[in-house]
Amino acid sequence: MKKVLVTGAAGFVGFHYARALCAAGYDVLGIDNLNDYYDVALKQARLDELAPLDNFTFEKLDLADRTGMAAFFAAHSPDIVVNLAAQAGVRYSIDHPHAYVDSNLQGFVNVLEGCRHNDVEHLIFASSSSVYGANTTLPFSTDQNVDHPISLYAATKKANELMAHTYAHLYGLPCTGLRFFTVYGPWGRPDMAAYGFTKALYDGAPINVFNHGDMLRDFTYIDDIVEAMMRLVDRVPGADPLSAAPYHLYNIGNNSPEKLMDFIEILERATGRTANKNMMEMQPGDVYATYADTDDLARDIGFKPSTSLKNGVEAFVAWYKVYHGLNDE
Description:
Number of strands: 13
Radius of gyration: 19 Å
Oligomer: single chain
Order of helices and strands: EHEHEHEHHEHEEHEEEHEEHEHH
Largest sheet: 7 strands, parallel
């Protein structure tokens, strides 16, 4: 079975994907720098879930470590690389720009170079719906121009797409980029709305509701993300129609934008608690709406995300209660 390197294996998507790959019989190499952007204990708990799997191995490694990354690729020679490691978060990028340059730019070059020099068959890399930036034409399509990012995080993700295309063109490295739309679910990130709002509800703390709740998000459940990625892992992209490079971009979203206030109401019902809402202005770097056009995903792999927000939120809350040892009393 093929050997798959998953960067960011202790992260939210990386953990779920590594587990799915192992279940499918792949030999999975996981790396992560275990930084403290959010609670390292959660990252370690994810790794503890992966550790018993016979076909999973882990090494603590930072993508920005040029020498370490080159040595890792040379020692392990992965067949497929899935780059999910990145400094995440739109809001954090406003005050911590260098973290994004180190991880998302320098780190990504090290991944690309590792692939180039070690005959990697396929690079799959995480992009983000944030690349659509100031675009207002909905739904967002990968055919749209995305030259107007409104956060440094988005700019680095757009840069990743350009960098990958360059390597696909120059060196024939097959690259598939995935623009994720508001991923949520069990083992999710504490800086995301589902986790942060749920914690506030159980703690009796207020939640910050930006743009006075007038926002739309294409919430995408983690299992749908993983299913799409499993169908893409061995699907090497064909020639790009413009450049002929082996390169393709996909949106992975639910194709069903939800009102932020409806999301909060579903969380309230799932937790049995009422939110104390702190209505605020739009946060710098945020967009009003996200909405994924997933036609090409459905065409190419016969799948589109479809988990309802209600079912997904209920599954997240159930996990949250178990993880934090809560009950409904």
